Fold:
Amino acid sequence: MLRDMTLGQYYPANSVIHRLDPRVKLAGTLVFIISLFAFRSAEAYVAATLALVAVIRISKVPPKFMMRGLKSIIMLLMITVVFNLFLIRGTVVVRIWKLTITKEGIETAVFMAIRLIYLIVGSSIMTLTTTPNNLTDGLEKALRPLNKIRVPVHDIAMMMSIALRFIPILMEETDKIMKAQMARGADFESGNLIQRAKNMVPLLVPLFISAFRRANDLAMAMEARGYRGGEGRTKMKPLVYAHRDRMAYLVMLAYLLVMFGANRIGFAARIFGLS
Structure:
C-alpha cells in the first residue's frame, strides 16, 4: 500500500509534457484543480475526464502506474462517500433503519469522489513529469513577484520541493519499518479500525528518528556545498518560455472555455428539466 504512493515521484520519459516549462505545469495543475470545484455538472466532468485522459496519454506515463497511487486514498475516499451519502438531507431514496440515503447525497458523494480522484491524479501528473530541481525553479520563478513584499520565495519553493521529494522516501522507510516489526511478530492487519490504528503507533518513533536523521544529513550536505539561500544565486539552466509553452497556455484557456460551456449546458438542461 505504501509503495503505491506516486505523489512526489518522477517518471522519466520523452514526452511533450516532460519538456514543458515547470511554470506551465504548475499553472495547468492549478487551473485543473480550480475547475473541479468551480464547475459542477455531469457535462463539465465529462470534459474534465477527456482532458485528463488526453494529458495522461501525451505524458507517456503508464496509466497503471498513475492509478496505483489511488490505492493510498481508498480509506479517505470511502469515508468521504459514506459521510455524504448519509448526512445530506433531501429526497429520500433508500431508508436503512434510522439512516437515509437521499438523491442529493448520492449526487454529492459521486461528485466528491470524482473530485478527490482527479485531484490526486492531476497532481501526480505534475510531479511524475517534473524533476524536483525544475519544480523548485518553477515555484520560485512563479512566486518571484512576492519578493517585493519581503516574502522568502526561494526558501518556500525549496521547502515545498523537498517535502514533495521526501514523500516517497518516507513511505518507503515506513514500509521497511513495518516489515521489520512484522518479522519480529508485530501484527498490523488484524482487529478493528481502532485497534489497527493503535498498532501503528510503534511505527511513529523509528519513523520520526529516521526523518530527523535524513533532515540533518540533508542540512549538512547543503552547508558543505556552500548553500546560503537564494540571494545572488544563478541558474545553470534558466527557465525560458518556448513556443510549446505558449501553446500550452492557449490549451488551458480553451479548456476553461470548454468547461464553462459544458457547465452552462448542464445548468440549462437542469432548468429545462425542472420546468
Notes: The chain has two domains: 1-130+241-275, 158-238. Residues 1-130+241-275 form one domain.
